[in-house]
Amino acid sequence: MGIKTNIIDLANFKNLSEDTIKEKMLKAIEQINKGEVIAFPTETVYGLGANAFNETAVEKIFKIKGRPADNPLIVHVCSIKQAESIIDFNDFIYKNNNNKNTETIRDENQNKKDNINFQFLSKKVLLDRFQKAQSLWPGPISFIFPAKKDKIPSIVRGGLSTIAIRLPDHLLAQVLIKNSFPLAAPSANISGKPSCTNSIDVINDFNGKISYIIDGGHSVYGIESTVVDCTSIIPTILRPGFITQEDLYPIFSDIEYSDALNYNIIEKDGSLKSSPKSPGMKYTHYKPEAKVVLLGKNEDKYFLSNIAKSSSKKIYMMKSLDFSFDINNNEPFKNLKNKKILILKHSDLFDPLFEIIERFSSDTKIINFLDSYSFAQKFYALFRQADRENREYIFIEPYGFSGFELAIMNRLQKAMDEIWTF
């Protein structure tokens, strides 16, 4: 028999005092203190949280979510002081493999015979970077620092000597953590599926598996936090998010994107060759049951080199959008016959294609977005809605590869099944 899942309705939390919020959350707080797992809202996506100091509690997250054991978690804190308490600011050893964006050495199962050149990142540098990081908290950004390994269990760190930390800009999350513990929390979804940006989707994934879900309404941003590694030679963005490289330049003038975001070094199965330092780097993510088709233009060399050329996904390259050829018996169009399809667009660029799709499809829904921010806020929920409606295909007009739109393309690249270019 499954666990009874209770919903704590705090969707109107902005009208409530902190004391009232705490009172309504008391039973969820008790569950965390007992070593259980609950779901809670943040400004990015919903999280599945447990006491970050309790190894047994964190193990439950991995079991409930079906998460690979080497995929590290982000620890959510309620204050700068709490973040400081779990960071080791002593000189930090990193591995010099002649790559300016180096990986942290593993503290478990490290082969001591490896011929690796180890170097130090000084305490002064770490303290300086932490001081700079504070200016972006609270907010939708996580920073990786050396972990106090006596406080943070290996399972939280993914076996690494570092820990990702975030101070969420969400009152419910802050009150929850303030009255319990720092929370180790991945996104609140079954591993590999789209993240949840509302409580209904969390319920669909975890009803009967966890005791409490805190309903805080719809997430503000709808996309996971930016992750910045402060333990590499230069600060490095491991996962793009709402806070962009351009936003970070005034604070970290030398910040760069990780080489792991160059799709050409990703394995054909979509994973990295090495263990991930940040969530969202290695495994399949954000994937609905429907087949996701990402569209592109043949003359867009950046798109072709960063997405199509390096992908193991099926690619259909067509000459143009005039469709002068026989499409009725031509792949991939014949696969669309009598299918239920969702189209997500933001311009009229691919309208000739969408008109053809409507002719083939038994049921086509088209949603037009005014900007990339509204798309980011809603596309996970739309992926899930498409699955509930038994839609077989989702066609998506792409965004760019700079600023905030890079974060969107990063998620779509992981979710897609096919690429169609014209």
Rg calculated over all Cα atoms: 22 Å
Mean pLDDT: 89
User: Tell me, what's the shape?
Assistant: globular
User: What is the name of the CATH superfamily of the largest domain?
Assistant: DHBP synthase
> Helical percent range?
25-40%
Low-confidence stretches: 97-115, 263-274
Q: Which class best fits the helix and strand makeup?
A: alpha/beta
Q: How much β-strand is present in the residues?
A: 15-25%
Biggest sheet details:
9 strands, mixed
What's the CATH class label of the largest domain? Alpha Beta
Molecular structure report:
Helices cover 27% and strands 19% of the residues. Helix 1 (18-33) crosses helix 6 (171-178). The radius of gyration is 22 Å and the shape is globular. Helix 10 (351-360) links the parallel strand 16 and strand 17 (363-368). The N and C termini lie far apart (52 Å). The relative contact order is 0.15. The chain has helices at 18-33, 55-65, 80-84, 123-134, 154-157, 171-178, 199-206, 245-248, 301-308, 351-360, 372-388, 404-415, and strands at 6-9, 38-40, 47-51, 74-76, 92-96, 117-121, 141-146, 162-166, 183-184, 212-215, 226-229, 236-239, 256-257, 291-296, 314-317, 340-345, 363-368, 393-396, 418-421. With 422 residues, it is α/β, with parallel strands linked by helices. It has two domains: 6-265, DHBP synthase, CATH 3.90.870; 291-421, Rossmann fold. The strands form four sheets. A nine-stranded mixed β-sheet has the order 2-3-9-4-8-7-11-12-13, sandwiched between helices. Strands 15-19-14-18-16-17 form a six-stranded parallel β-sheet, with helices on both faces.
